[in-house]
Amino acid sequence: MIDPRRLRVLRALADHGTVTAAAAALHLTPSAVSQQLAALESEAGHPLLLRKGRRVSLTPAGDLLVTHAHVVAAELERAQATLDALASGSAGQVGVAAFASAITQVVAPALAALKERSIELSVRDAEGHESVRLLLDGEIDVAITEEHRTTDRFTRFPLYTEPFDVVLPPGHPATGPVDLAALADEDWVVTLPGNPLRDVVEMACAQAGFTPRIRHTSDDFRAIQALVAAGAGVALAPRNAVRGVPVAGVAPLRRVVAAVRTGSEDHPLIRAVLDELRS
């Protein structure tokens, strides 16, 4: 019989790509992860891994088992939520990760309201894509993130939508709503590769008919604002992160959601936090 605890190790390997990274996420040693994976292969009766030097990839059987592992994990989350509901868990701590402006907009007000109900939030400042990794690794319970990934491993609850504004250096000739096409010859300050907000900016520029000339990168919008103010270039940023000049026509949007691991949404504490965040 397959040990479901070893399925968690296989999922971590699929998520992180290497034994070392999976071990770090699971707070285990690489040798312990390798031993668990070898035992899982024996239990499954199929080779699950392809090893090339230090690199490891999944076989078709490994990919199939990861899919089933997601289902098992969701059911275990539901089982825990049901048991906690049975115990009428009405007080405790919930881990939340969110980017800075979402902490200001929704997390901090929710924290104050939940504290009166003996529910404590443990808040971590993390960009949306990073909070998703923390959620899948089990380090937090709720991730405030952009609606950019499609997976049945977590369930989303819409919170708010905000437009992107153009951030311009002092004395820039553009005034009022800015046509992005007019910024085709400018240097740009954007987020780092892998941040979904960078994809939004590049897509908006492509729709305006040009590829942005990227000179500077940062995932901290205070840094982006400072670079623009110093004349390093222009930027597009979500309105709640940096107040800029509206985009002419249809502005790109950031749709912000609260995400939880599928199955955990029925946990009484998590449900209370989700309700307060949406409120």
TrEMBL record:
SUPFAM superfamilies hit by this protein: Periplasmic binding protein-like II (SSF53850), Winged helix' DNA-binding domain (SSF46785)
Domain HTH lysR-type residues, every copy: 2-59
Annotated Pfam families: HTH_1, LysR_substrate
UniProt keyword annotations, A-Z: DNA-binding, Transcription, Transcription regulation
Coiled coil: none
UniProt cross-references to InterPro entries, sorted A to Z: LysR_HTH_N, LysR_subst-bd, WH-like_DNA-bd_sf, WH_DNA-bd_sf
Family per similarity comment: Belongs to the LysR transcriptional regulatory family.
Protein name, UniProt field: LysR family transcriptional regulator
Provenance organism: Lentzea kristufekii
Lineage: Bacteria, Bacillati, Actinomycetota, Actinomycetes, Pseudonocardiales
